[in-house]
Design goal:
The protein contains ten helices and nine strands. It has 290 residues and is α+β, with helices and mostly antiparallel strands. Strands 4-6-5-3-7-8-9 form a seven-stranded mixed sheet, with helices on both faces. Strands 1-2 form a two-stranded antiparallel sheet. The structure holds adenosine-5'-triphosphate (ATP). The site of adenosine-5'-triphosphate (ATP) has 17 residues, from α9. Keywords: ATP-binding, Cell membrane, Membrane, Nucleotide-binding, Nucleotidyltransferase, Transferase, Transmembrane, Transmembrane helix.
């Protein structure tokens, strides 16, 4: 083994350094995930007790080590119960960003099928959005580039219909029995309508109602781009990765949809929802359109 440093009785190898770096990154990621929630205080409490445990263990203080060791044993189970929602969120983030979450990769690996491009003609979506926005008809469209989202599709009515402007307008027409909930669009098809999306658990600025909360929640849980047309103002927004872009022009929507479907990383172009809490942000009733 190659040792980098030898300070007194302490010898640190490259492996130790990598180990320490990885643990630091992990702790930072957990901190980022829990920041702002009540769970962060419990997490810091556990972390402090664990550090004390490591310290007394290193000093060979046996009695204290046994007591704290017992506490840590029970503490792990308690932590799993207390942090269940955060652990779920953490695993979802890992699953979402893993390249194995891409269904077309699985098809290629398992069935030797040639991977098809996920890009398709988005004009029907843009044209339908213009019409829905112009008539102040609320709409929620989930675009997926690498998964059929079966779990969410099955919460609504399965369709598997070829995408068209008229189909989308008919679905979101307020007299249509399919208008409530979201449509899921994948590979040029409307896979399902009337789907129920997960609502974000974060605090969302007051101007965003349930439709926007569901869009933000869906974009947090999956690698999807969610398009929202507000029933109240006709404004068009996009949600991605828990962030949002509000009151977009149709040209902007077209560019974002095309970039997303061709695999471009657009996450950085989105605003954190906290931006819309600023006092200078005014909900504009003026709609920009091209
Ligand atoms: N979890 C959900 N999944 C899918 N669709 C939902 C969900 N929650 C609400 N919606 C849709 O949003 C509609 C209610 O929207 P609401 O008016 O509360 O939201 P909003 O964000 O203020 O939108 P708007 O600006 O259009 O008024 C519902 O009728 C339903 O179609």
């Amino acid at each position: 083994m190659i040792f980098l440093f030898k300070i007194g009785f302490l010898e640190i190898s490259i492996v130790n350094l990598i180990d320490i770096s990885l643990v630091s990154i992990l702790i930072y990621q957990v901190y980022k995930l829990l920041r702002g929630s009540v769970a962060i205080k419990i997490f810091l409490g556990f972390l402090s007790i664990y550090l004390v445990y490591l310290f007394v263990n290193a000093l060979r203080m046996e009695l204290l080590t046994i007591i704290l060791g017992q506490f840590m044993g029970v503490g792990v189970i308690a932590a799993i119960i207390i942090f269940a929602p955060e652990i779920r969120k953490f695993l979802l983030i890992i699953g979402k960003s893993s390249f194995l979450s891409n269904e077309s990769i699985w098809q290629e690996l398992l069935f030797w099928r040639k991977r098809e491009s996920n890009a398709f003609n988005i004009s029907p979506i843009i044209e339908a959005t213009k019409s829905l926005s112009g008539t102040n008809t609320g709409a929620l469209m989930v675009l997926s580039r690498n998964s059929e989202l079966k779990f969410y599709s099955e919460s609504g009515d399965l369709m598997d219909a070829i995408l068209s402007k008229r189909l989308l307008i008919s679905i979101f027409n307020k007299y249509s029995p399919l208008h409530d909930g979201a449509v899921i669009i994948y590979n040029g098809k409307v896979k399902a309508a009337r789907c129920i999306l997960p609502v974000t658990e974060r605090d969302v600025p007051a101007q965003f109602g349930l439709r926007h909360r569901a869009a933000i929640g869906m974009s947090e849980a999956t690698d999807t781009l969610v398009l929202i047309v507000s029933e109240e103002t006709g404004q068009v927004s996009l949600a991605k990765n828990g962030k949002i872009l509000h009151n977009l022009s149709f040209q902007e929507v077209r560019e974002f949809l095309n970039d997303y479907l061709s695999g471009v990383d657009i996450d950085d172009k989105f605003d954190p929802i906290s931006v819309y809490e600023r006092p200078q942000f005014k909900k504009s009733a003026v709609k920009t359109s091209n």
